[in-house]
Amino acid sequence: MATQQITGEQLRRLFGLKLKQIRRERKLSLKEVAEKTDLSISY
After folding, report:
1. How is the chain split into domains, by residue range?
2. What pLDDT, on the 0 to 100 scale, is given for residue 16?
3. CA quadruple 35, 39, 42, 43: dihedral positive or negative?
Protein backbone atom coordinates (compact mmCIF):
# COMPACT_ATOMS: atom_id res chain seq x y z
CA MET A 1 0.00 0.00 0.00
CA ALA A 2 1.46 3.37 -1.03
CA THR A 3 1.42 6.31 1.36
CA GLN A 4 0.79 9.83 0.18
CA GLN A 5 3.12 12.66 1.05
CA ILE A 6 1.64 15.96 2.19
CA THR A 7 3.33 19.02 0.75
CA GLY A 8 4.16 22.05 2.87
CA GLU A 9 1.42 24.02 1.13
CA GLN A 10 -1.16 21.31 1.86
CA LEU A 11 -0.07 21.16 5.49
CA ARG A 12 -0.39 24.94 5.89
CA ARG A 13 -3.86 24.81 4.34
CA LEU A 14 -5.00 21.99 6.62
CA PHE A 15 -3.60 23.78 9.66
CA GLY A 16 -5.38 26.99 8.70
CA LEU A 17 -8.70 25.24 8.18
CA LYS A 18 -8.43 23.43 11.51
CA LEU A 19 -7.48 26.64 13.31
CA LYS A 20 -10.46 28.43 11.75
CA GLN A 21 -12.78 25.61 12.84
CA ILE A 22 -11.53 25.71 16.43
CA ARG A 23 -11.62 29.52 16.51
CA ARG A 24 -15.24 29.55 15.38
CA GLU A 25 -16.27 26.82 17.82
CA ARG A 26 -14.77 28.83 20.68
CA LYS A 27 -16.10 32.12 19.31
CA LEU A 28 -12.66 33.72 19.21
CA SER A 29 -11.77 36.59 16.93
CA LEU A 30 -8.55 36.65 14.91
CA LYS A 31 -7.32 39.37 17.24
CA GLU A 32 -7.96 37.23 20.32
CA VAL A 33 -6.10 34.25 18.83
CA ALA A 34 -3.21 36.51 17.82
CA GLU A 35 -2.97 37.90 21.35
CA LYS A 36 -3.11 34.44 22.96
CA THR A 37 -0.42 33.04 20.63
CA ASP A 38 1.75 36.17 20.47
CA LEU A 39 1.49 36.09 16.66
CA SER A 40 0.28 38.79 14.32
CA ILE A 41 -3.21 38.56 12.81
CA SER A 42 -1.70 38.23 9.35
CA TYR A 43 0.38 35.19 10.28
Report:
1. 8-37
2. 92
3. negative
